[in-house]
Amino acid sequence: MTEKRTTVRTADGMEWELMPDHIKLYHREIVSAEEADSLGVRASSVLWEKIGVGGAVLPHYHNVAEIIHITVGKVRLLCNGEWKSYKAGDTFHVPAGVVHSVANDDTAPTEQISIFLPVEDGAPGNRFFETTKVPVPLERQ
């Protein structure tokens, strides 16, 4: 049996990769489909994305649902056929098959976390998670 262990991926150890089908869009993969499988969860990918000034994720749609959380800057979102402005802290829930786009609307690069989740007919219902506390001394620094 494989031991379950927490893994850490530091920002310094992750390279920004250009996504050539879009404009000034870079990403770092936080969780791949294979890593999600090893965790026993259903996810296609979790990306940390950066959009350069004047850049955009061009209009598109997926066969998966996407949750986009803006972490840095101001963006414009193509949402239900209209462009609207949003800022860091805002989150978008995009169903599978829905056309969407995110464009940098700032004077510096913007950043977002995008979570891609499979859509499955007959999937079991979701529920809030359970937490169990354990007695471990907290290390003080």
Describe this structure in words.
The protein contains one helix and nine strands; from the N terminus they run ββαβββββββ. The chain has 141 residues and is mostly beta strands. It has one domain: Jelly Rolls, CATH 2.60.120. Strands 1, 2, 3, 4, 5, 6, 7, 8 and 9 form a nine-stranded antiparallel beta sheet that branches. The radius of gyration is 17 Å and the shape is globular.
SSE blueprint:
Elements: E1 17-18, E2 23-32, H1 33-39, E3 45-60, E4 64-72, E5 74-79, E6 82-87, E7 91-94, E8 100-104, E9 110-118
Antiparallel strand pairs: 1-2, 2-3, 3-8, 3-9, 4-7, 4-9, 5-6, 5-8
Please sum up the structure shown.
Strand 5 and strand 6 form a beta hairpin.
Please summarize the sheet with the most strands. Answer: 9 strands, antiparallel
CATH names the topology as Jelly Rolls
Radius of gyration: 17 Å
Query: What's the helix-strand series?
Result: EEHEEEEEEE
- Low-confidence parts: none
The name of the CATH superfamily reads Jelly Rolls
The first-level CATH class is given as Mainly Beta
Structural class, by secondary structure, is mainly beta
Mean pLDDT: 93
